[in-house]
Amino acid sequence: MRAMIQQNKLIEIFEDKNLIHKIQNRLPSLFQLAEEESSRAGKIGMQVGSLRENIIIALLIYKFGSKNIDTNIPITRKEIDVKLYGQLISIKTITGKLLTGIKMIWTVDPISALELCIIINQNVICF
C-alpha cells in the first residue's frame, strides 16, 4: 500500500497542468544545455545523464519540496538516484530524437543478479 501511495505522488507531476506547461517549455532547453555542456568534439559524453538527472531532481524538489526529497544517495548505490517521500527512484534518460534506447544490465554473478531483481521489483517506480 505504501508503494502505491508513493507512486501517486509521482503521478501528480503529470496531473498538474501548470507544471506540465513549465516542463514542456523548459525541459527541452535544459536538456539541450546539458548536452552542450557534456559535448566534446561533437560527441555527447556520458556525464549528460548525470546532468539530466540533476535537472529532473530539481523538478522533483520544485514540485514536492526539499524536505520530501533525499538526494544523499551514495554514488555506489546502483539503480537508485533519489528518494521521494522515502521511496527509492531510479532516473533514466535517453539521448536522441527516437525512443530507441533500452536499459540492459548484464551480470553472470548470481548474487548480483538476485540483488538487481530485488531492486527492480521493489524499489524502482515504473509507470
How does this structure look, described?
With 127 residues, this protein is mainly α. The chain is built from 4 helices and 5 strands; from the N terminus they run ααββαβββα. Strands 3-4-5 form a 3-stranded antiparallel sheet. Strands 1-2 form a two-stranded antiparallel sheet. α2 (17-37) packs antiparallel against α3 (48-64). It is globular. Mean pLDDT is 78; it is low at 1-5 and 123-127.
Number-wise, the strands total 5
Given this structure, which CATH class is correct?
Answer: Alpha Beta
Write the CATH fold name. Answer: ECO RV Endonuclease, Chain A
Q: Which residues sit in consecutive blocks of at least 5 with pLDDT less than 50?
A: 1-5, 123-127
Question: What are its keywords?
Answer:
127 residues; mainly alpha; ECO RV Endonuclease, Chain A; three-stranded antiparallel sheet; two-stranded antiparallel ribbon; 4 helices; globular; disordered N terminus; disordered C terminus
